[in-house]
Amino acid sequence: MQYNTKYPSQGAYACVGCGQPLYYAKQKFSSGCGWPAFYDGVPGAIEERPDADGSRVEIVCSKCKGHLGHVFKGEGFPTPTDSRHCVNGICLSYEPSAAQPADVAEVPAELRLPEIPA
Length: 118
Description:
Helix content: under 10%
Mean pLDDT: 87
Shape: globular
Number of strands: 9
Radius of gyration: 14 Å
Order of helices and strands: EEEEEEEEE
Structural class: mainly beta
Low-confidence stretches: none
Strand order of the largest sheet: 3-4-8-7-6-5
Distance between the termini: 6 Å
């Protein structure tokens, strides 16, 4: 793993389509589903749209409208929002030097997996 991107504490994840920052590293957590999960996004960077059948809520990049995945709410995760942005990893680019505000809450330790040694 080139940048230790599983659960870094610094940096941000950007949209591969347009480069807009979408998620701060501290917002990422292990939901157990195998897809990257975040409890929230960069303010204004993500739009929510109900799926046509009304069963799920799609998330897209607010700048280029690229599909990111889906958001699920009220699942009981002990995160600041109890929301899970389930994102297709191919949509994200990790930017290790990207700034992240100091007030972004980190998820509880039990929701962060240890890094795999390189």
